[in-house]
Amino acid sequence: MHDILPEGEDLRRAIKWISGSIQENTRASVSQLVEEATFKFDLSPKDSEFLMNFFRNRKEGQ
User: Fold this and answer.
1) Could you count the other beta carbons within 10 Å of the beta carbon of residue 59?
2) Dihedral class, residue 38 (left if φ above 0, else alpha if ψ from -120 to 50, else beta)
3) Which of 10, 20, 51, 55 could form an SS bridge with 41, CB 3.0 to 4.6 Å?
4) Residues 37/50, Cβ–Cβ less than 8 Å
5) What angle do CA 56, 61, 62 make, to 5 degrees?
6) Cα separations (Å) of 45 from 1, 25, 61, 62?
7) In the chain, what are the domain boundaries?
8) d(CA 5, CA 47)
9) What span, in angstroms and rounded, lies between the C-alpha atoms of 36 and 33?
């Protein structure tokens, strides 16, 4: 069965995956996690850039 996801669903899954990985290992490299998520969830370079900015802004906001 071919899984057709709504637009942006892979990006939401990547955010959840990265967030979970950071919670498990607070020393995890966000850039490395974003790179892994990009391949794992087959994201575009634009999505990858969004993830980097999202987690950078999140870290600065804490």
Assistant:
1) 10
2) alpha
3) 10
4) no
5) 105
6) 27, 25, 24, 26
7) 30-62
8) 15
9) 5
